[in-house]
Amino acid sequence: MRNESSIQRNTLDEFNDAPGADAVRMLLPLCSSPAWATAVADRRPYDGVDALLTASDQVFAGLAIADLDAALTGHPRIGDRVTGHDTAADLSRSEQSAMQSADERVADQILRGNVTYEQRFDRVFLIRAAGRTPGEILAELRRRLANTDADEQAEVREQLRQITRLRLEGTFAP
What we know:
This protein is mostly helical. It has helices spanning 12-17, 20-27, 34-42, 49-62, 65-72, 87-95, 104-121, 134-144, 149-172.
């Protein structure tokens, strides 16, 4: 389920050897949390993609809510037409490609559910869409609407971790 549509593929050696600010810039399209990108870049060098993925997972575990919210700014609403032509937009478009096959009823329910979710949690509904059908996305949206704020923060953290992991694999895997 690795994201193969990353526009800018980099080798791990290029990432390891890049100046700090450049390494952070390489990471920000994958996750728009500056705290995450800086922490992952600061742990270089990595001896393999698995080490990079492990470091990313560890950084996600310690991110503050404000940093998770910053990461959400790089994610459009599920089911909305993704605009923009930068790497993050291209990745989102690819990850949400299954939504193009959604029947009108399911797509409409997801869009209405997004509004309900945003009113409930004051953030965009985020889900790892890669590998999921529109029906599965809708079922998860409905399930998560019943979450407590704390449970939903944990869900958001996990979904961001999964999305970022796929993006890292697509960008840095050999």
